[in-house]
Amino acid sequence: MIYLDNAASTPVHEQVLHEMIPFFQDQFGNPSSIHRYGRFAQRAIQNARKQIAHLINSEPNEILLTSGGTESNNTALFGLAHAAKGNHIVTSSIEHEAILEPCKKLEKEGFEITYIPVDDSGLVNSKDIEKSITPETCLVSIMFANNEVGTIQPIQEISKICHDKQIVFHTDAVQAVGKVKIDVKELGIDMLSISSHKINGPKGVGALYIKKGIEISPFIFGGGQENGMRSGTENVASIVGFGKACQLAQENMKQNILHLQNIRNNLIAKVMNEIPLVTLNGHSDQRIANNAHFTFLGVNGEDLIIKLDENGIAASTGSACSVRVQKESHVLKAMGFSHDQIAGSLRLTVGLSNTDSEIEKTVEILKKVVKELRAFSPLKEKYGF
Ligand SMILES: *Cc1c(COP(=O)(O)O)cnc(C)c1O
After folding, report:
1. β-strands 63-66, 206-210: how paired?
2. In what helix (H) or strand (E) does residue 114 lie, and over which residues does it extend?
3. Which H or E run contains 310?
């Protein structure tokens, strides 16, 4: 198999697994226990918290450990909204469902949400954000990099607008962490969501960076773990693995980005050269290092994924988190794509272990499969292939 769906999830790094194993075996203590088992687990969590904090240049006590990107986003939105005075929130029309669904719920609670549009490359205009802000605005949440088309937003511009108006700025950085150098102080970010399994760590663990001084209301109550912000016995092994994944991501960031870009650029060049009637979607340079997103007119994306899978290639039409209900991509819709363009879309996201020879094989198969599917396409006449 050739795995090209790294935006959906990544394999656990060998060194990460190695760090985790003792916590399933001898080191099974509850981190709240006073005895040495407990203290060992507690120290391991504090070490992981440092590794996570370090990756984004924050302080360890600004890191809230969660069950992943979804919970981090939910905590940022509900936690801030319920603690703040204003009742207006600004976000974008291309956010992940883990932002959009909480926003829908907040609308039902009486909050007003503004969804900032994007241009045809998936970029928000920070002027639109500035104009949307009212005296009631308590939060602006704009994703760092999009999970479907990979477009990177002008985060520093947006944070400046927010700070000039003393509004809290949150960013869903799940796709950007490890692939873009992120310094929350330099970028002026107040809250930031991270997910472990998108950076070669285990699933079911993540973090929300909350800048010191920002008030959030908790919604899980119990034993008072995580400073009372999220009760429940910590997922020690996963937290340790997440910490190690952050450390590795930081140490290897430069060479990882170069590797991903090289492979991805090779993929894009070959697809554009060898397959007729294809477009590359997203932004030409403000794009995350591992993302390639194409439209093959006349091809149904889901048929394409199945055919690719039969030929040993794992790919995606877009957001994996909502695959079970196949609906049209809200991201591509917001970018102004037609029904035919959305239907013909394919996302290929490379990872650390992909090679150029895998890319060559992928393009060969893709070329063959696209041709086969187009032969039966009802859009044959319309587009003339
Ligand atoms: C994957 C993803 C999430 C969800 O993270 P989980 O850890 O899977 O809950 C949120 N936002 C973006 C942009 C993602 O890509």
Report:
1. antiparallel
2. strand 112-116
3. helix 301-310
Is residue 95 in contact with ligand 1, taking CB distance under 6 Å? no
What average pLDDT score do residues 86-101 get? 98
Closest ligand 1 atom to 196 CA: 7
Does domain 14-251 correspond to CATH entry 3.90.550.10?
no
Average pLDDT over residues 61-66: 98
Domain ranges of the chain: 2-8+253-383, 14-251
Number of neighbouring beta carbons within 10 Å of residue 130: 17
Structure pTM?
A: 0.97
- Is CATH 3.30.420.10 correct for 2-8+253-383? no
Integer Cα distance of 1 and 248 in angstroms: 25
Mutational pocket test of ligand 1: of 101, 103, 174, the residue with most ligand atoms within 8 Å of the beta carbon: 174
141 Cβ contact list (under 8 Å, min separation 6)? 73, 76, 77, 89, 90, 91, 95, 99, 169, 170, 171, 172
